[in-house]
Amino acid sequence: MTLCFLYITFLIAVKKIKEGCILVIMLKFFKEPEAKETIQDKEKVDKLYKNYRWKIMFYGYLAYVVSYVGRKNLSIAAPSICASLGWTNENIGTVSSAFYLTYGVGKFINGLLADRSNVRTFFSTAFICVAIASFCFAFAANFFAPGTALLYALCFLWAVNGWCQSMTFPPIAKSLSYWFTNSERGIRWSIISSSHQVGVVFAGIIANLAISRFGWQSAFYAPAIISALVGILIFTQLRDKPTSLGLPTIEEYKGEIKSNGNLDGKAKNNDGESNYFKTFFKHILGNPLVWLLILCYVGNYVIRTGTEDWLVRYFVDHGDSLAAATSKIVVLSSIGIAGSIVGGLISDKVFKGKRTPVNLILLCFLAAALFLFATNPFKSKIFELIYVSVIGMCTAGLQSLIGLCIVESSAKSVASSANGFAGMFSYIGASIAAIGTGRMIDTFGWNGAFIFWEIAAVLAIVFNLIAMPMENKLKSR
What we know:
By secondary structure, this protein is mostly helical. Helices cover 79% and strands 0% of the residues. Helix 7 crosses helix 17 (415-444), helix 9 packs antiparallel against helix 14 and helix 17 (415-444) runs antiparallel to helix 18. It is globular. The termini are far apart. 53% of the residues are buried.
């Protein structure tokens, strides 16, 4: 009996040791690398900075394009899924809302983790997880007959995909904050943000081709393969902060040690505080400007997710084929690229790094375009396409600039956390919008959806007007 007890104790001990080893390995894998001794060779420093700044822009852009290919495919596949499984608009809205809910909460939590993690390992792991979740979502339909069980299963798996997707932008926000100064970050942030419009375009193209040839499940298998490949590329090409390579901070390198915004200064801790959570509470939770911008963000996301997720169904319901409806969404997203980049450029060059004036202009155009699209006073398909283009341009520009303004209104050491915190609220709003829009359509028709989006635009204008003098005061320091 004693020998038996000792043997069982030994097995338990071995198991605990193994579990501990796995935990240690995981912590080491994701741990933020220590700063190396600063390289004194200026030529080598120039070469490394040029190399990795280019890589951050290229692979960050590519990665976020692929991220959207793996999330906006649902809206393209929605008509085929509804036809195949006998689902209603509310069913699709429920699945979409599951994604946005976990994406929003995950963006905050993963933002906290990304600030303390190695960009290389955290970012690459995100895309491997996205690949697995996307594959399982499509494959689950082979195990459940159409009905409540399948709806619950797909809601769960799309929620898992949402969590994995929430890991993809925080490391980008961190990289942009540490590899580019405040004076050059606006246009670069806008360029990276425009990748989501490109992603929607490619999501439409890939999903439409896949569905027409192989059925709706293939619209999820293809992004799974692409995501896995991108995860491998990121692991081999990207690195963490400049100091982890022995480089000086970007402010030292560019000669911008004196702050012209809250994000400049030494990377270790720009406001002199040693406690990360003290910085988080001061610059995010206790910052009224951040909260006002978050409310603007929520309003824009209600409109952005509503139009991107539901306009394909709108055009199909109004007589367009799936291919024609998809092409119109491609127009919305393509024009959005220009809105994102031009908005960042104008805020950098014309308004000297101030974002809220450009936000106000975009919000006013957005409210007008939504009203004209809903009423269509000229009864013209051409004008309808113009309204869609303006909506795409404005929502894309706002998504980029409000997000950047939130990060700039906090502190560099909590850049990913600020982005994630705002993202949590915006995607909770998007989750409500997803299921709410579906219910409004089923109850009141498409006019209900447009009224819902218009109210969000007006509220965002009000919050942005309140935020403008606060941003002026911050940027004038």
